[in-house]
Amino acid sequence: MQESYRFVVTGHVQGVGFRVATRRKAKAMGLSGWVRNCPDGSVEGLVAGPNHAAVIGLRDWLRRGPPGAKVETLEWQAVDAPVDTDAFIIRR
User: Fold this and answer.
1) Which of 23, 48, 61, 62 fits as disulfide partner to 83, beta carbons 3.0 to 4.6 Å?
2) Nearest-angstrom CA–CA distance, 10 and 68
3) Which residues contact 14 (CB under 8 A, 6 or more apart)?
4) Looking at residue 67, what DSSP letter applies?
5) Which residue is catalytic, options 6, 36, 37, 59?
6) Which of 15, 6, 17, 11 minimizes the C-alpha distance to 55?
7) Residue 81: strand, helix, or coil
8) Residue 42, domain extent
């Protein structure tokens, strides 16, 4: 069964390669979903995958982010939302 989670990361998370690094990490873990910048300066996304350890691994990584990021908060919520791709993409 595939788990799906919506996340919102706040702090200094735009302009530091957060979306690209998130996509790279998710793809390496075999996860699907999307990530995007929000007008309020946060980064939002949806992640899904059948491997609970990989999903939780991405959650733990999101708490730190890539070098240069300063994560203040991570909202993480289980959702019953289909992921419309088998890849992990950056939405504009």
Assistant:
1) 48
2) 14
3) 37, 41, 43
4) T
5) 37
6) 6
7) coil
8) 3-90
CB 19 within 8 A of CB 43: yes
AA letter at 90: I
CATH of the domain at 71: 3.30.70.100
Q: Which of the following is catalytic: 19, 36, 51, 63? A: 19
The HSE-up count of residue 22 (CA atoms within 13 Å, CB side) is 32
Structural domains counted in the chain: 1
Query: CA-CA distances (angstroms) from residue 58 to 28, 39, 40?
Result: 10, 23, 23
Q: 65 is written with which tokens?
A: 């982010």
Q: How confident is the model at residue 31, as a pLDDT?
A: 95
Tell me 43's DSSP state. E
The reported pLDDT for the residue numbered 71 is 98
Mean pLDDT of the chain: 94
Reply yes or no on whether 37 is catalytic.
yes
